Amino acid sequence: MSHLVIAPVLLPLMAAIVLLLLRHLDLRLRRLISVGALLAELVLALTLLVTVSDGEIRVYALGDWPAPYGIVLMADRLSAWLLVTTALLAFFALLHALRGIDATGRHFHVLYQLQLFGLAGAFLTGDLFNLFVFFEVLLLASYGLLLHGGGALRTRAGLHYVVLNLVGSTLFLFAVGALYGVLGTLNMADLARAVAATPADNVGVVRAAGLLLFGVFALKAALLPLHLWLPAAYAHTSAPVAALFAIMTKVGAYSILRIDTLIFGNAAGPLAGLLDPWLLPIGLATLAVGTLGAVAARGLGQQIAYLVVASAGTLVSAFGLANPEGVAAGLYYLPHTTFAAAAAFLLTAAIARRRGELADRLDPGPTLPEKRLVGGLFFVVAVALAGLPPLAGFLGKFLLLRATLGLQALPWVYAVVLGTGLLALIALARSGSLVFYRTQSVTRAAASAPVTVAAELAPVTGLLLLVIGLSLAAGPLYEYTQATATQLMQPDRYIQTVLGGGGR
Amino acid sequence: MEALLALVIGVLTACGVYLALRGRTFPVVLGLTFLSYAVNLFLFAMGRLKIGAPPVIAQGAAGYADPLPQALVLTAIVISFGMTAFVIMLSLKARAELGNDHVDGRESS
To answer: Is A2 within a domain?
Structure first.
């Protein structure tokens, strides 16, 4: 039994504890610890990715108690893929935060590491109740991060976010309780086995619990009609936090994919495909509404937040096609949209700082300092966000459209995906021209902080290089996501690996 | 006993949902608390109701109560307790920064 599976969960927790103990230390040293821990996490995630890419599912039985009695962590291609995405994203968002935002409140680095702890745990756990616990960990950390720095608007958005997520957690517990009450287990692989053998008179309860779970994950993934919390929360928080939160909706999408393929997968007997009739329509509707929101947005941050909603819609639509090609396309699209949204949030902060009082409002303002560099970056970010060629967003959408060939839903998917692509392009083009071209040559907005332009824009550039890398390495990466999708479509192998003494 | 417990859970949930939908932060916090009470009872009942049965191995025991839901409830209680404390602090902060205790930060006319 290799300890590699639990290492990415333990490392951020240890880093958070160390940072909390050393809170009186010089800020520079704490930054060093935080970045060092994150780099180590990235190495661990990459090692795990290489390890699991042989197709075996790694199971780690905590305390060596065999499943289903003990609690297990499991690492497969999907978990490793998301872990690597998270670590890369978190690294660049942290680089941005190091330029001063981490000093505007207390315990930024502690909360940041705890957030990574929750994320890594949620991706690696093989137990439904532990998924709940890790959700709580990442949510609690996210409450702290969201409110970091303070301010009335931020507090109001934070209050809505916290209350909504508390209600979501309660519903999660109701669903978990109902599943345990009927099936007598919470281990996901064991649940998959038990769901397939549900007695006929309990099918209704399990179906209700499954759909309740879906509702909770839809809230986290900001799917229609549970998306209304996201734009305000993301638009009003600080830039690195918003960038890190680009992965938060993907946790919801990940959980949906996990229960859809493992617990209610094709081997689930009377409950097979429980979520399938819901995913595609809800995904497409979310995509449409998110894009319309982006068109109507009055601030750049709000616009990008709506595009995050739209990207969650795209992902869930891809998963909702319920064929391996669709899932593979969605998984290929996932890191791209995460990095692109994060880069956009970070760039918005840079633009807002240059515009002084106007901040990110979409009104004509002063000519920006360094307008060529910032404008050029905005152009690349907009191309990535709208999913235009030659970047990975285009490839992801193309793969999604190709996966739809031969399905009945083809006209709907084509109409919505292509239509929203055009609308997103129009929205971003309008913002770009408002911010960069229709400027009034009044006095320049005074640069508020003495920062070097290179340090300010390095994280954005890094994220954009990742996006370009995703496009250049599309072949091998798509092969990986295809293998992931094939693996996900065989829940029997999970059940065998977890329950058949695979952790020994 | 089952009917009584089911009724209690139902009433707590209904009160919780009603209060959570109110416009001021105090009822909302109270509603969230009621909801968490309801879900704790619900989780507890998922191990089936038994009186006087030991949860772990005891000599000469005729039957056992399921210990797992009790462990789950403990976890859930701790988490909801911490969350309630957090949301109360946040409400106080919102009251101070927004000037009133409406969840949207403005008095409805």
So the answer is: no
| Closest by CA position to A157, among listed B27, B106, B94 | B94
In a domain, A503, yes or no: no
**Measured between alpha carbons, how far is A94 from B105 in angstroms, rounded to an integer?**
31
With respect to residue B56, please indicate whether it lies within any of the assigned structural domains. no
Contact call for A163 and B103, based on CB within 8 A: yes
Task: Mark yes or no for CB contact A173/B90 under 8 Å.
Answer: no
Q: What is the CATH number of the domain that holds B15?
A: 1.10.287
In sequence order, the β-bridge partners of residue A162 are none
Count, residues in chain A: 504
- Closest to A153 in 3D by CA, of A269, A47, A237, A82: A237
Based on the structure, what is the number of domains in chain B? 1
Q: Are A440 and A62 in contact (CB under 8 A)?
A: no
Distance from CA of B58 to the nearest CA of A (A): 19
What are the backbone dihedrals phi and psi of residue A187, each rounded to the nearest 5 degrees, phi first? -65, 130
Q: How many Cβ pairs within 8 Å bridge chains A and B?
A: 82
Mutation target to probe the A interface, by most A beta carbons within 10 A, among B43, B104, B106 is B43
The ipTM assigned to this model is: 0.92
Which two structure tokens, joined as six digits, stand for A345? 């949030």
Mean pLDDT, rounded, of chain A = 87
Q: Which of A283-297, A348-362, A488-502 has the highest mean pLDDT?
A: A283-297
Question: Domain for residue A112, yes or no?
Answer: yes
Report pTM: 0.91
Match 């695979």 to its residue by tokens: A502
List CB contacts (< 8 A) between A181 and chain B. Answer: 45-48
DSSP A444: P
Q: What residue type is assigned to position A147 of the chain?
A: L
User: Taking the CA atoms of chain A, what radius of gyration do you get in angstroms?
Assistant: 22
Residue B60 falls within a domain, yes or no? no
Report yes or no on B32 lying in a domain.
yes
Q: How far apart are CA A61 and CA A198, in angstroms?
A: 26
**Element (DSSP H or E) covering residue A75:** strand A72-75
* E strand or H helix at A204: helix A203-220
- Residue A504 in any domain: the answer is no
Domain membership of residue B90 as a residue range: 2-49+65-98
Best CA proximity match to A120, nearest among A136, A107, A138: A138
Number of structural domains chain A divides into? 1
Helices (H), chain B: 2-20, 25-45, 67-98
B59 within some domain = no
pLDDT of residue A503: 41
B87 with A169: Cβ contact below 8 A: no
Residue range of the domain that includes A416: 7-491
Distance from CA of B60 to the nearest CA of A (A): 24
Please state, in angstroms and rounded to a whole number, the distance separating the CA atoms of residues A254 and A315. 10
Residue environment code for A40-57, b if the CB has 16+ CB neighbours within 10 A, otherwise e: bbbebbeebbeebeeeeb
